[in-house]
Automatic annotation (TrEMBL), chain B:
Top-rank taxon, per record: Bacteria
Lineage: Bacteria, Bacillati, Actinomycetota, Actinomycetes, Micrococcales
Compartment(s): Cell membrane
Name of this chain's protein: ABC transporter permease
Source organism of the structure: Georgenia deserti
Membrane topology of the entry: Multi-pass membrane protein
Coiled-coil features, chain-numbered ranges: none
Membrane-crossing residue ranges in chain numbering: 21-41, 61-83, 95-114, 120-139, 151-172, 178-201, 208-230, 266-283, 313-336, 392-412
Major localization class: membrane
Keywords in alphabetical order: Cell membrane, Membrane, Transmembrane, Transmembrane helix
Length: 437, 424
């Protein structure tokens, strides 16, 4: 977490921390004043490090987002509205109704995502956490894909289209080919990766060769992918013979599907292992390989990278292909892991959620993995939460988390936390300006 | 020609720009495609030119398909020849050649679709549908132009449209007045625009990221409120309100054009006004000059005393309001109640229209109308039962946009300071 190049580097320097000055200027109160003197105690220093760390900002952002969600849940609750009608007569009623509504919703969220303490059998009690991991699998894979692109300074918004194309390729190999056990699923997964890679590769090639803005191209490819899958499902090759429904034939679960990791009531499949492997692979690619260095260099400063002899065009195409392949694998987690058929809505909103996952994970492999698990938990919990309130609250919570994460100074100013670069300024005059960033 | 002759000897000394074959090639390709429309047999195509209730009821026109298409093909060939001549002389193509070519191509296509069938080709309905479907696109594209000319990328058009649609429906339903609903829509859009400005200008967050996340936020908020508050009490909060068509005296009686352009609701007339105002203000007013300066070179603008951040915030909020007004079209503008995610990606198409229109209001409107026409055509074709998949046709606008940004339709250059936060 020491070197922070978290966000797509379309702007120089470190956007996460630079605006701190603006906050300080306009009156964000620092936790400790200059009267502390130049010598800080070790504890105080440690405390400051913890308080200004980016993981704390992430945590507080999640807390703030859940609070905002609680406000919405309370406002939309009919009991609360009723009690608020006579608020000035009996204010306690309103507060109690608010508490009940919020508690019921978040309790359901917890029971749906982590551990169902009200379940009648141990299997059912544990099932939520496996559901979380199941939902997290495509989010992690697609999130990793977008994270790779973000590190290269490429804003790949096309996760949606790449997931769809991956699902199309994977599903087609899945239901049309007749192959032995291990080979079939391997080929289907590779096909899915290829599908996503082709779709992202289009954007990469256009960006490298013609300078076409990858944001616009990938957004357009999302829509084209959506209509493409709708069209394919009307053709003979992709439809169950004789059926009018736009649904592909079933993918044979014995040969072409990811094997289940646990017994039948659990849906957790080997795609999750693939997600773990992918996390390791992306870590190695970005942090240990020459290509990864080139990707990060091109992302941090394309001009400098070009001067240093890196072929930025090649890096752009390669990055988009890797990014698309990972998104394609996310599509395979859908068709080969959980759905086992291809439908028009196969990508759900995973492509857009993956953007938020990569941002929350600060485009780092492990961070993206954890963010994927968190958003998987929100999705899994949201299913049970539906009995209490609308599942759409998850979207609100997710987007608020990402908005706040993208603007750490905002979170710091809400909680009056010190900023990481506040320390050298306070020691102004002293010869300690070489404090590490 | 005369200019070239007059400068004579000096013209040879000067290095001439290379001949641009892009447009002649595009025209030639489309003309070759149009050859396929000649396969119509000896049937006839019937066009319906006026709708029931128009002031002038023109009888349906039945044309022999083959002869019609031969004539139209000749028009296209002539336009191609003109394009070649202009290209050789390095002269700009002007506006009437593309217009004539486009109209001829579309008419040839329609003749081909309708040949030998009993179904009519409803020209007026097609055009009216195109205009209606363009309304949110035009407002969204105007919003994009206003924001991006000041250096703020507005991906949140989608969210602004949706927020506008939501508030218009709720206010319209509460007050039982579609006009009040329409008036409330810009407030919702401006709020989303304000959030975009807050994060992009105040905290220097990447504008594309904020835009995408704001879209998710608005989808989440509106869907949440829709499925909790609005559905519980839909009679009060989400009742349908619609705005009546106001025929403009005189103009509305012109055949074909009158009913299409001048027998519309107030929202459409506001759209005309917004486009004209945006174009004039952007290029002829102090505000416009300052906006463009901030978008192209904020440092220079700051040096002469223009407040860069304030200009950007103001423009983003105004842009949001414009898009919000466009969102009113989805609900009160078309007499519908609010529905989950009812903007359905139109904001992204508006963004594409703005890019195709090269960040100018005029161009953006033309592109938005083209997208609207494409959708209207798809609607008509799926109604007429033509043998073309509507999914494939719906892809076309997006594919055209990709070709456009890849530089096949001329150089596309965004404002220089787009998505670059201004740091003093």
């Amino acid at each position: 977490m020491s070197d922070e190049t978290p966000r797509p580097a379309t702007e120089p320097g470190d956007p996460a921390d630079r605006p701190e000055g603006a906050t300080a200027r306009t009156g964000g109160t620092p936790a400790a004043g200059p009267q502390d003197g130049p010598i800080e105690t070790r504890t105080r220093e440690l405390l400051r490090e913890v308080l200004s760390g980016s993981w704390l900002v992430s945590l507080l952002a999640i807390v703030l987002a859940l609070l905002a969600g609680a406000v919405l849940i309370a406002v939309a609750d009919s009991d609360v509205q009723e009690a608020a009608g006579y608020f000035f007569a009996r204010p306690a009623d309103t507060l109690e109704a608010v508490w009940n509504a919020v508690y019921a919703a978040y309790e359901a969220l917890f029971r749906g995502a982590v551990y169902d303490f009200r379940a009648d059998s141990p299997t059912r009690a544990i099932r939520p956490v496996t559901e979380t991991l199941t939902f997290a699998t495509p989010l992690i894979l697609a999130g990793l894909g977008l994270a790779v692109a973000f590190r290269a300074g490429l804003l790949n918004i096309g996760g949606q289209g790449q997931i769809i194309l991956g699902a199309v390729f994977g599903a087609f190999i899945g239901f049309s080919a007749d192959l032995p056990v291990v080979l079939h699923v391997t080929l289907a997964a590779l096909g899915a990766a290829l599908g996503g890679a082709i779709w992202a590769g289009i954007a990469g090639v256009l960006k490298a060769k013609t300078g076409a803005n990858e944001v616009i191209v990938t957004i357009m490819l999302n829509n084209i992918g959506l209509y493409l899958v709708a069209y394919l499902l009307t053709t003979q090759a992709f439809r169950v013979p004789g059926s009018p429904n736009p649904i592909s034939p079933q993918i044979p679960t014995e040969t072409a599907a990811y094997p289940l990791l646990l017994e039948a009531p659990f849906r957790l499949h080997a795609g999750f292992l693939l997600a773990i492997l992918a996390t390791g692979a992306v870590w190695w690619l970005l942090d240990r390989s020459t290509t990864g260095f080139e990707i990060r260099a091109a992302g941090a400063n394309p001009h400098a990278a070009r001067t240093a002899g890196i072929s930025v065009d090649r890096v752009v195409i390669l990055t988009m292909v890797v990014s698309g392949a990972l998104c394609g694998l996310a599509g395979s987690a859908q068709v080969l892991g959980t759905e086992h058929v291809l439908t028009g809505g196969v990508a759900a909103s995973y492509g857009f959620d993956a953007i938020t996952v990569a941002l929350l994970g600060r485009s780092k492999p492990v961070g993206t993995f954890l963010a994927g698990v968190l958003f998987g938990a929100l999705r899994a919990g949201g299913v049970l939460m539906q009995s209490e309130t609308s599942i759409d609250i998850i979207l609100v919570v997710q987007s608020i988390i990402v908005l706040l994460i993208a603007a750490p100074p905002l979170v710091r100013s809400v909680f009056r936390l010190p900023s990481p670069d506040a320390r050298p300024r306070r020691r102004a005059g002293a010869a300690t300006t070489e404090v590490t960033a | 020609m005369s200019a070239a002759v007059a400068t004579g000897p000096r013209a040879e000394e000067r290095a001439l720009a290379p001949v641009s074959w892009r447009w002649p090639i595009i025209y030639a390709v489309f003309t070759l495609v149009a050859l396929a429309f000649l396969r119509v047999g000896d049937g006839a195509t019937t066009f319906r030119i006026s709708r029931a209730g128009d002031f002038f009821e023109i009888p349906d026109v039945s044309l022999p398909a083959l002869a019609t298409n031969l004539v139209l093909l000749a028009v296209m060939a002539a336009a191609t020849a003109v394009a070649v001549r202009r290209a050789l002389r390095r002269a700009p193509i002007g506006w009437w050649v593309p217009a004539a070519f486009g109209i001829a191509f579309v008419l040839a296509f329609l003749t081909w679709v309708g040949a030998g069938r009993t179904t009519l080709i409803p020209l007026t309905t097609l055009l009216a549908g195109a205009l209606a479907l363009s309304v949110p696109l035009v407002f969204g594209a105007m919003s994009g132009v206003i924001c991006e000319r000041s250096g703020v990328i507005n991906i949140a058009i989608e969210g602004q449209l949706l927020a506008g649609a939501f508030l218009a429906a709720v206010v319209g339903s509460l007050t039982a007045s579609a006009y009040l609903g329409m008036a409330a829509a810009p407030i919702a859009g401006a709020l989303v625009g304000g959030l975009l400005a807050f994060f992009a200008v105040r905290y220097w967050v990447d504008q594309i990221i904020v835009g995408v996340v704001l879209n998710v936020l608005v989808v989440g908020l509106t869907s949440f409120l829709f499925s909790t508050v609005l559905t519980e009490n839909s009679a009060v909060l989400n009742a349908r309100q619609s705005m009546p068509d106001i025929p403009i005296p005189g103009l509305a009686y012109i055949p074909v054009i009158g009913p299409v352009l001048f027998r519309q609701s107030l929202l459409v007339y506001l759209m005309y006004a917004a486009v004209i105002a945006a174009h004039i203000l952007l290029f002829r007013s102090r505000w416009g000059l300052r906006t463009r300066a901030v978008g192209e070179h904020p440092k220079a603008a700051d040096t002469v005393g223009i407040k860069v951040e304030r200009t950007r915030v103001v423009n983003t909020v105004i842009g949001g309001a414009v898009a919000g007004l466009g969102g009113a079209f989805f609900t009160v503008g078309s007499g519908l109640a609010f529905g989950r995610e009812m903007s359905a990606g139109q904001g992204y198409i508006a963004l594409a229209a703005m890019i195709l229109g090269r960040w100018s209001p005029k161009g953006a409107v033309a592109a938005a109308l083209m997208f609207g026409f494409a959708r209207s055509l798809v609607n008509m074709l799926s109604g007429a039962g033509a043998g073309i998949s509507s999914d494939l046709l719906l892809m076309l606008p997006y594919a055209v946009t990709i070709l456009a940004v890849a530089g096949f339709v001329g150089r596309v250059r965004p404002p220089a300071a787009e998505n670059v936060p201004y740091v003093k």
